[in-house]
Amino acid sequence: MNDLSPQKMAEGTRDAMYENDFKLHDMGIQITEIAPGYAKATMTVTKSMLNGHGMTHGGSTFSLADTAFAYACNTHNKVTVASGCDITFSAPSKEGDVLTAVAKETILMGRSGIYDVTVTRQDGQVVALFRGRSRTISGEVIKHD
Length: 145
Known about the structure:
Layout: H1 6-18, H2 22-27, E1 30-35, E2 38-44, H3 58-73, E3 80-89, E4 98-109, E5 112-120, E6 126-136
Antiparallel strand pairs: 1-2, 2-4, 3-6, 4-5, 5-6
């Protein structure tokens, strides 16, 4: 896989992960952009994602942010997982809103990385800020024969 450009590598990792990413499919999350150290994901808030106040459940917003984080930190074709994260919810969203999570690699040092994810509504309002810490483990994302 060393003959692939960094962009082709990012696209290949997205494609390799996508098929078996059952949570992504269950929630209707789409990976709309991918690049080395970067991912953009969107999700339309459905009724099943609402909490008792009629707002998007924090876990649903978190799952969108976490998905963008996962795709961004695996773009280098090294199996990478979360070692920790935190999220700050800054505004509500509701059924029908389209949320977009943009994950950017802030720092990559050896096997550890930090990724910042901003989640916005379709009107540009920031809904949440997420910071993920990653750890590379053994293996490659793109399986080759």
